[in-house]
Amino acid sequence: MLGRIAAALVVVLALSSGVAGAVPDATATATPTPSEPSVGSANATLVAAYPNPVAHDDRGEFVAVRFERPTNTTGWTLTDGTTTAGLPNRTVEGTVAFATVPERARSGTDYRVAPLSGRLRLANGGDRLALSDGNDTVSTARYRSAPESEIREFGAGVWRPVGATDHDPIRTDGGAGTAFVLPDAPNQAVETLASADERIRLAGYTFTSERITAALLEAAAEGVGVSVLLDGAPVGGITDRQAGQLDQLAEGGVDVRLLSGPHLRYRHHHPKYAVVDDRALVLTENFKPAGTGGASSRGWGVVLEDASAADALASVHRADWTWRAATPWREYRRGRDFVDGEPALGSFGTRHEPKRIDVDSATVLVTPDNAGTALHSRIEAAEDRLLIQQVRIDSRENDLLRAALRAAERGVRVRIHLGGSWYVEEDNAALVAWLNRRAEREGWDLEAVVDDPDPDGYGKIHTKGVIVDDTAVVGSLNWVESATTENREVLVALESAGAADYYASVFRSDWSGGSRPIPGGLLAAAAVAGSGGLLALRRLEFVGREGTVTDWRW
């Protein structure tokens, strides 16, 4: 009877070890099956394994065990069914990583590392691990198909990159700020950077702006500490134009690093932000003429006069800057060739001036740590309006989109404005068609359109913006699954009626000034007719900007 009670307790402990809200993987368990556990046996749980390090011969592997109270591990063993290693003859408590090569394992974990005697070889293809106290099995766990340089967390049932951060959302007391949009305010970003007195911490995806290069060089020459952190493998490659700008920065004393190499912990470094003294600049746009330079893209930005928000961003920058994948530019560029890059040459007038705003509070969010969950929760709590402007949404099953549909079902007004660029047009049109059919069938106050930009206003939608009631969310997060789970993205949620109304007015202008509404009833008929009918309908509906959009409150 005591054995069954102890076994049940350990099952509870194992299940409680996961991330809040996560569903444990059925293949990753930590369920002990002792017959007569010795004292302390029910106290230990397998919590993680690192089977596939980058290092040759997988040196650096470890298995992490959590001990809820002090436990003497003399006579304890770990086995993968083929090889077995002994735990040290000592008393341990808390979570400990056990490794046969502890000096190599320390670079892959923040847990205390203790040595294993004997041999334990964790197979990259998968293994079943067992932790035993003498003859009693205390805890078991299983993993399959180990990705390189990722740790299996058994309780959560997920793989996480080695060195992955665990930032919490940082909520500040807010303060004053400036909301702006692009291409209307092409001087806002460069002027903010040029005003630095002490520090600039810039983080981006791509960088080709000559004006921003000049501002950073001037700041560095005046004694400002300037560091630039960029992605080392952007889609399409690094252009010769970007290489030229980074050469100038490095020669002028700016410390430039690119995230690259086998120790990458995120698929892409995709944020667009800068810390300027005690101010925070957060954008949806890249540091290049098409983005911050105002030569093409519709985007949103904000400058917060909020030291707490600036410090929160600086901590994210520091964590990514100091990670081993952050490679100095001169080292990165050695022996590399770069791709041709064409400059953006568009020119647009100012229709929406920057606006001073008061922010009740600002919350700094990052992926993959917290932003997906936080944004999902905000959408689930929407009561009045939900305005979404995105380059694309990857599927009908996107978690954020499903939350938006639930908001519409509750009676929230939902408007979704998607990009119309050639590389997303077809997919966006299909999704918009489905959304409008669904809204018509359910009687929801939801409309979706594909963008057809006014040529005098902007070139294309590149925004990643959301307005939820009186909160505006500005940042780099595209509504695709990989952005939420695999990329480094940075957003700021502005609890500010002034900010929300400002971006909503721009949204309304973009929607009415150039969009291609797709009536749900017509598309329903086209869907029945098959793909040929859908293409014919697109030709009918997508000519010009003459479609009528039903009036609705903003």
UniProtKB/TrEMBL annotation:
UniProt keyword list: Hydrolase, Lipid degradation, Lipid metabolism
InterPro entries: PLD-like_dom, PLD_domain, PLipase_D/transphosphatidylase
GO terms assigned for molecular function: RNA endonuclease activity producing 5'-phosphomonoesters, hydrolytic mechanism
Protein name (record): Phospholipase D domain protein
Domain PLD phosphodiesterase: 457-483
This protein's record includes keyword Chloroplast: no
A family per Pfam: PLDc_2
The organism's taxonomic lineage, starting at the top: Archaea, Methanobacteriati, Methanobacteriota, Stenosarchaea group, Halobacteria
Protein's GO biological process: lipid catabolic process
